[in-house]
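User:
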Amino acid sequence: MRLAARIPFLFIAGRAPGYGPAALGVFASALVLIELTAMLCTLGEKRGLAQRLSESDEHPANLIADGSLVALVASCAVALGFWLFPAPLFPGGNYTWIDRLMVLAIPPLALTEIWLAALAYRFDVAATVRARAVVEPWTISIVAGIMALVAPRSGLAVAYLASVYAAAIAAFVPFLRAYGRPQNWRPSLRNMGKLTWRSLPIATADAIEWGTRRLDIFILGLFAAPSAVGVYYVAQQIASLPQKLKTSFEPILGPVITRNLKTRDYAAIGRQVRQVGFWILAAQLGIAMALCIPGEGVMGLIGPQFVGGTGALAFLLAAEVVAATAVVSEAALIYVARIRNLVVSLLTVVLQALVTVGGILLMQELGYNELFQAAAAALGLALALGFASLVKSHILAGILAESINNWRWALVLAVVPAGLVGWAATRFLPEWAELAFGIPAILAVYFGVLWRRAFGPEDRVLFQKSSAPA
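Assistant: Predicted structure:
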């Protein structure tokens, strides 16, 4: 749903007069720091809130108010700093005063994450779907289209701000209904300080995990022109669909893990991590194949000047597949080994930075253009996430004394026929047909075989609606 709503935005931003790859590049460079700092300003409440709510007997609305106040103060301070010193947001120096207003997105971004995490603790994931998959992407698409006719130079910035505030409202209304107002609550500097100190490891791990998906854009922006960054941003947005599958499971996996930690049922945690890890891996692998095999046609939808980003798209999709194990392992590690998880996350970012910079410099030395440099940045991300998956799964397996392996050889039985269908579609069908018929055919064959050969009864529960409380 989120990708379907984002496609009109990417199409408008890629083809409308006044937009294009260069405008997208400037927009993406600012987005990196804005969303990263917003994640930092949540102080780990996106995942740490579930543990606080599980352990404390205090009124839930009061606990959430503490975290929200800390996030609001921190995000407002950072937003003011970026407003006064906007150079880090716009490395090329090409921006308008309206572009500078993008910093106003930081507070609502941070608060929205906390409100949605609170709703997820009560198993209300529908609020996240409405805010993130309906309200936010359709708002940015519609406003970008209007601004293309009115004021295209700052249209992307205005559309982004509108989408962020619309999503915040869509999250706050159900949050207020679910939790109500705080009861006899008073802001306490002591409580805020304790919360900040306790949350720092999770906050840093959250920021690093998110930052690995944006560090490549930041580094590429230092070496390449805005147009190349814009092409890479489009590839990243398309490749983010498999990543959203992980995000879909995260709101439920966190509360379930914290409840089992309370009873020290490590075997149950191991089963849940393996189960959800397999679901995420299987879905990501199928979608990655469907988008990668006809990759030139997918990128060409946005505009002919984006086709050169097909190589970057392939590596970005591969990165999401290899990251599946790291993602589910970290969902438990942030509660049972937060410092070790943080250290591995830091090593992952360092490795990614070194490989990305090295790859870009190597492409420059060999005389390849900036789109090859973009592909090198995507390869750096894939290698770094592969390292994180190996190390984090090994650490968690040792702590739980349970296997964390989410790979099943039956996946190969689904990949081979789906790959052959995709190859035939790109070989014998025109481009429009390989997108219209090839992608659905790849997905149909892959998931059909997967359902018959790889899914057991415990996996099929995912697609059943319970008629009674479990």
